[in-house]
């Protein structure tokens, strides 16, 4: 999906469309499903918005897997917006967890 408003273009990366096995640092990159496709798309971005429903006080496991396959090359120096949705309570913990990961990646 791509839209243009005020000179910006956006692309939605729906993690349901990516095969991302649970991250294992010693796993051969050829066995990582769509991880390379995901990191290539993130690398191309000027800014990133991460969004997740709140699960058990944190963000979703598909987002965790996506972040595990990503690193400094994809996030360093980029502006990152954060969005968390919760059915009831304010999703502070999920937002804090995402912020901590982005800070660790120098976003």
From TrEMBL:
Q: Which domain of life is it from?
A: Archaea
Named cofactor requirement(s): [4Fe-4S] cluster
The GO cellular component terms are: cytosol
| All residue ranges annotated as the NADPH-dependent FMN reductase-like domain in the record | 5-107
| Listed transmembrane segments | none
Pfam families for this protein: FMN_red (PF03358)
**InterPro entries tied to this protein:** Flavoprotein-like_sf (IPR029039), FMN_Rdtase-like_dom (IPR005025), NAD(P)H-dep_reductase (IPR050712)
Q: Name one GO molecular function term.
A: FMN binding
The UniProt entry, under PANTHER family, shows:
CHROMATE REDUCTASE, NAD(P)H-DEPENDENT FMN REDUCTASE LOT6
Tell me the protein family, please.
Answer: Belongs to the SsuE family. Isf subfamily.
Name under which the protein is recorded: NADPH-dependent FMN reductase
What organism is recorded for this protein?
Natrarchaeobaculum sulfurireducens
Q: What is the lineage of its organism?
A: Archaea, Methanobacteriati, Methanobacteriota, Stenosarchaea group, Halobacteria
């Amino acid at each position: 999906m791509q839209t243009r408003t005020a000179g910006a273009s956006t692309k939605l990366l729906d993690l349901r469309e990516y095969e991302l096995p649970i991250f294992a640092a010693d796993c051969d990159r050829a066995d990582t499903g769509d991880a390379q496709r995901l990191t290539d798309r993130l690398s191309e971005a000027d800014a990133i918005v991460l969004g997740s429903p709140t699960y058990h006080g944190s963000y979703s496991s598909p987002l965790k897997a996506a972040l595990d396959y990503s690193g400094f090359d994809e996030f360093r120096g980029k502006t990152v917006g954060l969005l968390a949705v919760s059915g009831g309570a304010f999703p502070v913990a999920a937002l804090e967890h995402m912020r901590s990961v982005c800070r660790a990646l120098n976003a």
